[in-house]
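Recall the central idea of this unit: under ordinary conditions, the amino acid sequence of a chain determines the structure it adopts. In this exercise we apply that idea directly, starting from the sequence alone.
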Amino acid sequence: MLLSTDLWVGALIRRAELGGAFAMVVRKGDARAGAVLVKVVDRKAGTVRLYSEATRGDGERVWMQPTKSDFEPDLDAYTERAARIDPDVWVVEIEDREGRHFLTEAVEG
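Accordingly, the structure predicted from this sequence is:
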């Protein structure tokens, strides 16, 4: 059984905070079944990455980078488009000095 999105997002934020990062919900979507985008910002290194959840053919939940860009305005534009298409989407932003995403599921390159 999958967790509701609001519980899952809360757990992600808690993992990030326990790891010394700062995390916040930038956009709140549907509490039960909203999709999630995770934006990871490393100001020290000047890097930004965006992760989107997906389901593989075998039903396993994975994360992928939905766009090749690492330019923050491009990633913000992507999240805005995603929110117009799916008003239930959540956006979580994590700022971490080491650029960690704190996702426990598989992350595909």
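The chain has one domain: 5-96.
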